[in-house]
């Protein structure tokens, strides 16, 4: 049975929720999991930049299993650009960072009363104040957060001033310039006052049958 992290920015709460085998059998993981969670979590006619929209960060289906070219991650939500389904994917190192935190996805709802970022490691999951980061560009933000974490394995996804100002072209940045660029989902982060996700988990990623994964690859 898998798990997802649910973050209520309005209430400042974080919960780990199990995901049943039936959900994985029907929707797999990755984008399918995000579709399932957001379909049931976002009410009809929700404002994409309002508290009812949900923003999800999910790892690729086979991330960390050793299979080839499967390490991309996706950010999902109701698009403020089209007011329909929004998704953007990106390569780099953020997808395994989600899995190393022990979950297949991290989902946000509500709006924080002030700028925050989510910090997760093996023992901690908490919202931290990001007032001093608000207004900084994405590369500067990522650099500062990694330096503060004291771990070179920490991975960051964040927005810059465009996302903060809810530009409908805003994306989500990681690895100092890789962009999950489509659908304006950086604006959703900005509307929620969510500056960044900082992931420093070290859990092992295992597959059910690593020898078969290797053979197929």
Order of helices and strands: EEHHEEEHEEEHEHEEHEH
What's the overall geometry?
Answer: globular
Q: Show unreliable segments.
A: none
Roughly how many Å apart are the termini? Answer: 25 Å
Q: Give the biggest sheet.
A: 6 strands, mixed
Count the beta strands: 12
How many whole angstroms does the radius of gyration measure?
A: 16 Å
Number of helices: 7
Largest beta sheet: strand ordering:
2-1-6-3-4-5
Please state roughly what percent of the residues sit in beta strands, choosing from under 5%, 5-15%, 15-25%, 25-35%, 35-45% or over 45%.
25-35%
Mean pLDDT: 96
User: Helices and strands: which structural class?
Assistant: alpha+beta
Q: Percentage of helical residues?
A: 25-40%
